[in-house]
């Protein structure tokens, strides 16, 4: 694979992860919804976002750079902590 193409894929992968993270944080009440400007919680929906990230971890195992793997793992770990806290607050 060409170096330029690999760079594009790395950036797209990172953007995909960030998208799931942002949506999960919105649903955990950690960020305002950009469409409504309001903060609201939908913990079940946040769980779905986290599950999608966990699925990506499994499906990409052995195919990510060390940096990409660390990035994904850190995001999943931090979201899991926020999710547990949100469930405790219910």
Task: Summarize the structure in words.
With 90 residues, the chain is mainly alpha-helical. It has one domain. Helix content is 73%, strand content 0%. It contains three helices and no strands. Helix 1 packs antiparallel against helix 2, helix 1 packs parallel to helix 3 and helix 2 packs antiparallel against helix 3. The termini are far apart. The model has no long low-confidence stretch (mean pLDDT 95).
The computed structural class is: mainly alpha
Radius of gyration: 15 Å
List unreliable stretches of 5+ residues.
none
**Count of runs of 4 or more consecutive helical residues:** 3
What is the helix fraction of residues, given as a range? over 70%
Shape: elongated
| Percent in strands | under 5%
Q: What is the β-strand count?
A: 0
Quaternary organisation: single chain
Order of helices and strands: HHH
On the 0 to 100 scale, the average pLDDT is 95
Number of domains: 1
Distance between the termini: 48 Å
């Amino acid at each position: 694979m060409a170096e330029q193409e690999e760079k594009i894929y790395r950036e797209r992968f990172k953007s995909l992860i960030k998208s799931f993270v942002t949506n999960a944080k919105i649903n955990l009440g950690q960020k305002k919804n950009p469409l409504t400007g309001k903060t609201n919680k939908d913990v079940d929906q946040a769980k779905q976002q986290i599950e999608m990230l966990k699925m990506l971890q499994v499906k990409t195992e052995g195919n990510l750079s060390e940096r990409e793997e660390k990035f994904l793992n850190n995001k999943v770990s931090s979201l899991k902590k926020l999710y547990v806290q949100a469930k405790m607050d219910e």
